[in-house]
Amino acid sequence: MASFAGVIQALNDRFMEFYKNNDMKGLSELYTEDCKLMPPGTDVLTGRSDAADVYAKLRKAGVMTILFESEELGPLGSEDALYERCRYTFFREDGSIYDNGKYVVVIKKIAGQWLFYLDIFNTNRPS
Asked: Where is the signal peptide (predicted)?
């Protein structure tokens, strides 16, 4: 198996390339068909269409760049599932910070391809 860090870095790099190019369809294909997303202020969202919508809304809100800082990663009991615990920063076009927080993703290997399955992120802003 490829290193955990290598798998996650490759997925994050592809994610950022799609996001940078405003290709939300391509970005959504990095997720399993039955993925679950849990962004702040919403119920659980399911499926690639919802994944595309979550990130399209961030773009419309002015988030042009996302920085991921991995803090912990590893297997989830098998060679076909990984997790990553990370910090994120969302930046506006002018470089100012739109938001920062933390997230956890579960990544599954399906038909030889690593894909995001669970994606939960929470802002550090006070409520």
From this structure: none
Q: Does domain 4-122 have CATH number 3.40.50.1110?
A: no
Between CA 32 and CA 115 the distance in angstroms is 6
Question: What six digits make up the tokens of 97?
Answer: 């910070």
Long-range CB contact pairs, 120-126, < 8 A, 24+: 120/37, 120/38, 120/39, 121/38, 121/39, 121/40, 121/88, 122/40, 123/40, 123/99, 124/99, 124/100, 125/99, 125/101
- What's the whole-model pTM score? 0.92
